[in-house]
Amino acid sequence: MSFRSRALSxxxxxxxxxxxxxxxxxxAVFINELHYDDSTAAGDVGEAVEIVAPxxxxxxxxxxxxxxxxxxxxxxxxxxxxxxxxxxxxxGSKQVKVLSYPTNGVQNGSNDAIALVDAGGSVVQFLSYxxxxxxxxxxxxxxxxxxxxxxxxxxTAPGTSLQLSGSGTEYGQFTWxxxxxxxxxxxxxxxxxxxxxxxxxAVASTTPANGATGQAxxxxxxxxxxxxxxxxxxxxTLSCSVSGSHSAVTTGTGATRTLNPDVDFASGETCTLIVxxxxxxDQDGTIETMDADYTLSFSTAGDLPPxVASTTPANGAxxxxxxxxxxxTFSEAxxxxxxxxxxxxxxxxxxxxxxxxxxxxxxxNPDVDLGLLEQCTLTIIANKVHDQDGTIxxxxxxxxxxxxxASSINDYYAGVDTSSGPALKxxxxxxxxxxxxxxxxxxxxxxxxxxxDPTDSTKVWDxxxxxxxxxxxxxxxxxxxxHTWPKSLGFPNPTDASGRPNPPHTDGHMLYAxxxxxxxxxxxxxxxxxxxxxxxxxxxNHGVGGTGGTSSNYFNASTFQVWDFRKGDMARAVLYMVVxxxxxxxxxxxxxxxxxxxxxRSLIVxxxxxxxxxxxxxxxxxSVLLDWNDxxxxxxxxxNRNAMVQTFQGNRNPFIDHPEWARCVIxxxxxxxxxxxxxxxxxx
Length: 684
Description:
Elements: E1 2-3, H1 7-16, H2 20-23, E2 30-35, E3 48-54, E4 63-68, E5 76-82, E6 87-91, E7 94-100, E8 112-117, E9 123-129, E10 146-147, E11 160-168, E12 174-181, E13 191-193, E14 198-199, E15 203-207, E16 221-225, E17 229-231, E18 236-240, E19 244-245, E20 248-251, E21 256-261, E22 270-275, E23 280-282, E24 294-299, E25 308-312, E26 326-330, E27 334-336, E28 341-345, E29 349-350, E30 353-357, E31 361-366, E32 375-380, E33 385-387, E34 399-404, H3 421-432, H4 443-450, E35 452-453, E36 456-461, E37 468-470, E38 479-483, E39 489-490, E40 511-515, H5 516-522, E41 534-537, E42 552-555, E43 560-561, H6 567-580, E44 595-597, E45 607-608, E46 617-619, H7 622-631, H8 636-649, H9 654-657, H10 662-667
Parallel strand pairs: 9-10, 11-13, 39-45, 44-46
Antiparallel strand pairs: 1-14, 2-3, 2-11, 3-7, 4-5, 4-8, 6-7, 8-9, 11-12, 15-16, 16-21, 17-23, 18-19, 18-22, 20-21, 22-24, 25-26, 26-31, 27-33, 28-29, 28-32, 30-31, 32-34, 35-36, 36-37, 38-40, 41-42, 42-43
Helix pairs in contact: 4-8, 6-7
């Protein structure tokens, strides 16, 4: 039972019934304060968005999405951040969450807007300033904003904000006021909230949303409750108009449950999930069940023809290594006939190739490497690709992918100094240090591509349990973001004091998709050998795992041992952090920590090495990580992951390209390094 206004439950139910616009005035979770423009000559300072909610509502997976309304009829999103990045405060019966942004981080043109999005992806509010706008993309696509009626200008005094004032518990009871002294994290000027009310749990949101259409046949269903709950074995029923009743595996804890149906749905049918109210109870205070059952209806897509979901390289890509494999991922399982593609280049002409994989993702390995700096075209032939479900259908049209190859396979590490460990470490640091940093809320986008299931582009491949899960953009229903270098050991905050992304906290080379429970087992323990420890087995998947022994992870309170197939991956992710982060301030402008690996456990302690002078963040265990790097060399999947992260960040993990450099960099042994052969990925 959460302490909040009873009207919260009814507002959320109304929202899920499709009346988001009318429910905006009735929500108990709302945008409460905003600063986006002022007279500071060097750029607007102290920009922030504040959200308030009843105490007890889990906001960690809610998001704030900013829209640029320069074209009012077609506003586009430019920032998407979770409230897990926010700082916290309180005001009466409300919790207060504040997202701070860097200088000029919030648009100050006309018709700009803010969407408040719940854990299930539904838009709770879509408010704008300096005019009304309609969103063209993102969670608010197709929605028209509500103008708050007050604004700031380039004459507004810094240290002020736009705020709601009044007394009540819901958005509609308050009124927006012009600029006044900012109160971020505290009660607004002339604002008070009513006393908290003890109410039963309710369904806050679902994915798919109620009334959703065109859902995939293998869609999982996520139910987010208004507070942490317990459920019984019979807490739901699920039935469909064609495929009938379905059982499902339930995962998740706290306020979120995800259902993975045992059998896929049929194409073009309507399905109904009923959450049985008296089988769902809250966990705090007096135990209460839901007031009533909750019904969700959605429909699956009809029997659609297959299409191309993604390719590597993408259409229009530049700098593609000529020795790399190409890949094509389709929208569903397909049968590809002989001659289903052609590949030709301006200088080297037509290319034959060997294909592998399927039925969703196919690899194309040219028999002869592509040339340097030439334009190439991959054409996927529509009538040679057929789906496998329902009525067999071909693609509707050919898909043409044009790209340019790299100028030289040696460019990335050209001039590398391998004469000594310190020399190589310094050279590599300077090569990779100025990567593009992203906000923590956007890391799911990177991770979902980097850790994509090689046979199903709708899923990710978990690093510890070896499971595959439907992709998600927030929350932790099945998997979350594993910091291979624990964030508490050097960089605990997702942003710096100015609201900029903290580069090590959001670095895609270090973040991996991990099963929620296994991630929790690991905690912030160093990697090491763990004899006699608790086993965490893997699932058999993609030809590996599931056999116990060295195919299991092991842990205790101070050590986590990775299963054999992923030992090298985790070692190289950690070793990358040592080379990438050596203190100072680089292109992002955010202060960075110095990170090192060690075998001395007493040095591996929590600290913020970005803010304390002379501090070093340590991880380990060094000798084990170096052994794992030797024992489990990079495979094609890890090399492809390296390339995928590079497309977002612009830098590479050198130890995936050159694992033989690890001991040189870390221990100053095995130097100089001489490479006899060109790496298959083209990064010598």
